[in-house]
Write a structure and sequence with these properties.
single chain, 169 residues, alpha+beta, outer membrane lipoprotein receptor (LolB), chain A, nine-stranded antiparallel β-sheet, 2 helices, 16% helix
């Protein structure tokens, strides 16, 4: 009976092992902006000290071939750098949180949660709003135009656009 279980020569095993390690590291780099390990966010109590709430309207165009989506925008900022926002159309469509170290976007209708470490990724325009309110520059490649009363955030690389207004508290 022939032996079909030939062993792989040692140099070939090393090369195969090196390729597996390289593939693993490459997957970590490419998928690294999304964490499946959930950060334990502190409970948000926007009526507590240091919080300022803004309400407004926004129009979100996630990609050039996707229709615009208009809705209500609620954004609350804390003096400690934490922010909470919600984009809704009757029901919450998207919620997001960001602080000095982490960000998270929750899309309940798709049962999707995206999270990672700061800086935020080059998509999810909503994560740029806290910088707009703090009068800070956006994360590359985002661009701001206007002011709090009438603003637009665009990503020239992807075509994503978010525009709207926020009522001053």
């Amino acid at each position: 009976m022939p032996d079909h279980t030939r062993s792989i020569p040692k140099p070939a095993r090393r090369a195969l092992c090196a390729q597996c390690i390289l593939l693993y590291l490459l997957s970590l780099i490419l998928c690294g902006c999304y964490s499946h390990h959930e950060y334990s966010w502190p409970e948000v109590s926007i009526s507590g000290p240091g919080w300022t709430a803004y309400n407004g309207q926004t129009v979100w165009k996630p990609m050039p071939r996707v229709p615009e989506l208009a809705g209500d925008l609620f954004l609350s900022m804390n003096t400690n750098g934490q922010a909470f926002l919600q984009f809704s159309k009757t029901l919450p469509f998207l919620t997001a949180q960001i602080d000095d170290w982490h960000w998270q976007v929750n899309i309940p209708s798709q049962k999707q949660v995206y999270s990672g470490r700061v800086p935020p990724p080059s998509h999810f325009a909503f994560l740029q709003l806290p910088a707009l309110l703090r009068h800070e520059p956006p994360t590359t490649p985002w661009q701001f135009t206007g002011d709090i009363a009438n603003w637009q955030i665009t990503n020239p690389q992807t075509g994503e656009r978010l525009s709207g207004f926020l009522n001053l508290p």
